[in-house]
Structures are given as C-alpha cells and as structure tokens.
Amino acid sequence: MQRSGVRPQTAMELFQYLKNLPRLEIVGIYSHFATADCPDDSFTKEQIKIFDELTTRLASSGSIIRHIANSGGTLFFPDSRLDMVRPALATFGYLPQAAPKSLQQIRPCFSLKSQVSYSKIVEKGQGVSYGHTYNTIARTRIVTIPIGYGDGFRRSLSNKGSVLIRGKRFPIVGAICMDQLMVDVGNHEAYVGDEVVLIGKQGSEEIRLEEVSRLAGTIPYEILCSFNNRIPRVYIDNPRLP
C-alpha cells in the first residue's frame, strides 16, 4: 500500500527492539491487502506468502496474534484468515464487486430511511431547489424529505438518485440541500409521515448501496462512512434472518 508500517526486510529488527523494551508487550502483528477484492489475485497471494514467512520467523520468539484479511481476503483467500479477520464491508452484508454468485446468500443488513416532511402541488414549468436545475414538465406533486448532504447523503445524487415511497420508486429532483431533498411523485399519493427508503428495501422494490455509490461516482465504502451522528441509528433483531 505504501501507506504506513514497516517493510518485511526490517520488521524483524524492529520486532526485536520493541520486544526488549521493559514497558511494552507485543501481542500482535498485522498487514493490509491492496488488491484482495479480486478473487485469485496474484499480488494478494504474494502478500500472504511474504506475511506468512515473516510471522513464522516471529513465532520463534513467542506467541503472537496475526491478522491481514479484510472483507475480500476473508471471502476469497482462506489462507489469509490466520488468527483473526477484519471484514468491514461484509459485516454490513455487502460484497466486493467481483464476488461470485456462490456468496449471494450474504444479504444487506443496512438501510437508510427517512419520512415525508412536506407535500405540495407544483404547477408546470416551476423550478425546484437551488439553481432550478430541475423544472416540472407538468402539474405534479413534490414532496420534501428531511435529509441532505449535511447528514452525509451526497449532493452528487441531485437529479440522479431515487427513493422508495409506498413501495414505488421516485426520482430525487433539484439540488440536494444541506438538510432536505425533494422528490417528484407525479400523480401518486404521498403524505407527511410516509416512510421513505433511500437505501434498502420497501415492498418488492430495492435501492442497493452499489447503485447509490455508482450514481455518486464513488464506492460503497465511502457512502457508508459518510453518514454522521445527525442520523439516528436503529438496531433491529430480525427473526426472519437465519
């Protein structure tokens, strides 16, 4: 990764130095994969080989916990699981893009929800939100949802993203604001208090995290990290899951 840490060639020397410090106890060593999201990746296999050789040498100095596997490593490279694993994306029920169909039993356990806070009829030819980047093409119903880029819902989804209301998909229209966004529901019913799903399932419809990240021009990891403490977390024990 060339990000941090020590090279394998000098790791043993550093280990011996740290081991001799009287106030320090070494309990583990780890590294991090650069390309493990690709099954059968040759560079990842080489990383596993180098890490295994190094930790085998360290083991002669006593027991030490070893870990290197991220989500891709945990799923695609069994030899990398060692003493512990560090899956992040997979713990949310999402898989690296190259995951085989045999892993599709892993299902998302994360969703992002809000509710309709305002509903109004807007006439044809009216601009919506900052800059009027969206103009109504007919008389329609526009609803307001109290979530925006101040909560971590990306502004780049303006006029691109969708939401689910009453089991139907509707487009986000106009620029997403700091605290609110607008949705065009056409002639469909939508009232204050209705549940709105921005990521997840509602009825037979689903907006997947991968779709949202693609429209935002980023990756699922960044989307998940964007949501801040302004959004309440609700943890649900779902008895329908195995």
Keywords:
single chain; 242 residues; alpha+beta; TIM Barrel; Lyase, Ornithine Decarboxylase, Chain A, domain 1; 2 domains; eight-stranded antiparallel beta sheet; 5 helices; 13 strands
Mind telling me the CATH superfamily name of the largest domain?
Lyase, Ornithine Decarboxylase, Chain A, domain 1
Shape: elongated
Main sheet makeup: 8 strands, antiparallel
The number of helices is 5
> Helix fraction?
10-25%
| Average residue pLDDT | 93
Helix-strand blueprint:
Elements: H1 8-19, E1 28-30, H2 42-59, E2 65-69, H3 71-76, E3 84-85, E4 112-115, E5 118-122, E6 127-128, E7 134-135, E8 140-145, E9 162-165, E10 168-173, E11 181-186, E12 195-202, E13 205-207, H4 209-216, H5 220-226
Parallel strand pairs: 1-2, 2-3
Antiparallel strand pairs: 4-12, 5-8, 6-7, 8-11, 9-10, 9-12, 10-11, 12-13
Structure summarized in a few sentences:
21% of the residues lie in helices and 23% in strands.
Q: Mind explaining what this structure looks like?
A:
- By secondary structure, the protein is α+β, with helices and mostly antiparallel strands.
- The chain has two domains: 8-103, TIM Barrel (Alpha-Beta Barrel); 112-226, Lyase, Ornithine Decarboxylase, Chain A, domain 1.
- It is 21% helix and 23% strand.
- It contains five helices and 13 strands.
- It has helices at residues 8-19, 42-59, 71-76, 209-216, 220-226; strands at 28-30, 65-69, 84-85, 112-115, 118-122, 127-128, 134-135, 140-145, 162-165, 168-173, 181-186, 195-202, 205-207.
- The relative contact order is 0.11.
- The mean pLDDT is 93.
